[in-house]
Fold this sequence. Notes:
Elements: H1 15-37, E1 40-49, E2 55-66, E3 70-72, H2 74-84, H3 87-112, E4 132-136, H4 139-142, H5 147-158, E5 165-170, H6 172-175, H7 178-191, E6 194-200, H8 206-212, E7 217-220, H9 222-226, H10 234-247, E8 251-254, H11 260-268, E9 273-274, H12 285-292
Parallel strand pairs: 2-4, 4-5, 5-6, 6-7, 7-8, 8-9
Antiparallel strand pairs: 1-2, 1-9, 2-3
Helix pairs in contact: 1-2, 3-5, 3-12
The structure holds ligand C2E and magnesium ion (3 copies).
One magnesium ion binds at residues 59, 136, 168, 198.
Amino acid sequence: SGPSADPVRIVCYSTGMRERALDQLRLEADLERAIAAGELILLYQPEIDLVTGRIIGFEALVRWQHPQRGMIPPSEFIPLAEETGLILPLGDCVLTEACRQLVTWREQASATGRNQENQKTRGQSGCDIDLRVSVNLSARQFSSLGLVERIEQILRQTSLAAGDLRLEVTETSLMSDADTALRTMRDLQNLGVGLHMDDFGVGYSSLHHLHRFPFDTLKIDRSFIGRIAEEKGGAEIVRTILDLARSLRMKVVAEGIETAHQAEQLRTMGCPFGQGYYFARPMTAATVSEMLVPAS
Ligand code: C2E
Ligand code: MG
Ligand code: MG
Ligand code: MG
């Protein structure tokens, strides 16, 4: 570029690029329809207490169940939703559905009175199962006005206690508008909503963000868990993150636990919570219901 920019610009698309661009356009037009049509569904992945093996909650993970393309993962439409602003209605749907689902599971469990032995403790809102739900929020949601009010409204609508909801935020979501993000997080903290720093350790300045924002939990990115046994220093890095969390009085969840060995190593190092394919893949709400309230 510069003052003497080329008068003629030649844009050269390969057929593949053109196809991809068109594909994106179609997907974009389709996403708005899909939200209205209820094609977005949530799967739930259990979070585990590594000492007792109990389920302590679920992370809600969105999927697009497309009538022609099948199941589309969030990596293929969340960025698109962010760009177009559709993330706001999408995010509200996800939040509402996740809160509603947690309340439903509790009602199901108490209605049958046949709660699993290990889920007997009382939840914060006096319900029969002591579970929480975690919801991912993206950058644009976080810098949007009125997020806190909408969350309050959703909690009221679904009769879920604020303490039963956790919001997962990555540090990249905080960087675009850090001042707004900080104010939002303080308000959410005052409400009593849990704040999890997602994908801890892979960003540019995880420590800086950890210090600046009022997170109560950090989720160790799965890349560290994957290297825990392999590379030199893999275990030491995880140990150091655990020490850091302890001295900051933060809770820790290890993401992406895929083997018994990783689970055992983390438990031995004193990591309290974990999630990953080793324990369970993300599953439908119906599967979770059956697990919590086994049919007689
Ligand atoms: P995340 O929040 O870090 O979620 C964890 C991702 O790791 C999920 O991928 C989960 O299925 C996957 N995972 C869990 N256990 C294992 C394991 O043992 N091994 C491996 N390899 N992967 C595991 P998923 O569902 O494809 O979601 C990807 C990302 O999309 C999420 O990362 C989150 O950042 C975003 N996302 C998902 N749902 C939502 C949503 O409702 N709203 C927003 N804004 N973002 C979402
Ligand atoms: Mg997450
Ligand atoms: Mg993560
Ligand atoms: Mg991630």
